[in-house]
Write a structure and sequence with these properties.
single chain, alpha/beta, 6-stranded mixed sheet, about 30% helix
Length: about 270
């Protein structure tokens, strides 16, 4: 990671699609069109939902659909980033030998991979049966001088995991997700709290509509480091765009001293 000064502002878009499921070419076409829309709106970073190109509800097909890092899906996303001149945070089923992970990747505007993360907290028996959890090591890259961390969906519901990303120096957390009903509170309560308590922005990109028996809540958002929404979707498909400023980060960190006031020596019980 470089020491590039932060730009005055970083425009961040969160994409909330409705499908497709199990149609990678159609999803790539939708991502291409959305990247064009985001770039036209001035976005420098586009955050996509969990398992961006395959759809989320794919546990029975996960092993068949999985690709290694740098595979065909990754190459296609990198080309879209280059074509439209914006960074993209996206997610896919990653094959590593016999194991399959739910992974996320931050790709720069030139197609360079800046960071990768494997989902550390698997949700429910379907995920546990299809995937292997990651080790939770913080993954942070840099876009326009802003340090961007990666987590996936359920990860953000664990304050310890988010705090590790903050302590790794993140200014913004990009979180691809697939949040389904009835768990609206994750987006409306937990995500703003994570932003506030860590003095970093959070871009939370969910799905709309339904897949099989799952109905998604939507509510994708870009939340500032003070816990206040910069942009928020309803339950319909679309794109929301918010602007994080360097001044807002500095102001939040002066006003809120959670990170500086931590006492790690009293947290030993967290490892039980």
């Amino acid at each position: 990671m470089t020491d590039t000064p932060r730009a005055d502002a970083l425009v961040v878009a969160a994409w909330q699609p409705d499908g497709p499921l199990l149609d990678v070419p159609a999803a790539l076409a939708a991502l291409d069109a959305t990247a064009a829309e985001a770039a036209f709106a001035g976005a420098r970073l586009l955050v996509c939902p969990e398992l961006t190109l395959t759809g989320y509800d794919i546990a029975p097909q996960a092993a068949e659909l999985a690709e290694p890092a740098g595979g065909p899906m990754a190459a296609a996303v990198a080309e879209i980033a280059r074509k439209h001149g914006l960074a993209i945070a996206w997610s896919w089923p990653e094959r590593d030998g016999e194991q399959v992970h739910i992974a996320a990747e931050l790709v720069d505007r030139d197609g360079t991979v800046l960071a990768r993360h494997r989902k550390a907290h698997l949700y429910g028996p379907d995920e546990a049966g299809a995937y292997v959890p990651g080790d939770g090591t913080p993954a942070v890259g840099e876009v326009d001088g802003y340090r961007v961390g990666l987590l996936v969906c359920y990860d953000v519901e664990f304050p310890e995991q988010v705090r590790m990303v903050a302590l790794a120096g993140a200014d913004l957390l990009a979180c691809p997700t697939a949040l389904m009903a009835p768990y609206d509170a994750v987006s409306t309560l937990i995500v703003p709290a994570r932003a506030f308590e860590n003095q970093m922005a959070v871009a939370y990109a969910n799905r709309a509509g339904s897949e099989n028996d799952l109905t998604y809540t939507g509510l994708s958002c870009v939340v500032g480091p003070d816990g206040v929404d910069l942009a928020r979707a309803d339950d319909r498909a679309g794109l929301v765009v918010g602007t994080l400023t360097s001044a807002a980060l500095d102001d939040a960190r002066r006003a809120n001293t959670h990170l500086a006031d931590r006492r790690p020596e009293v947290y030993g019980g967290l490892t039980r």
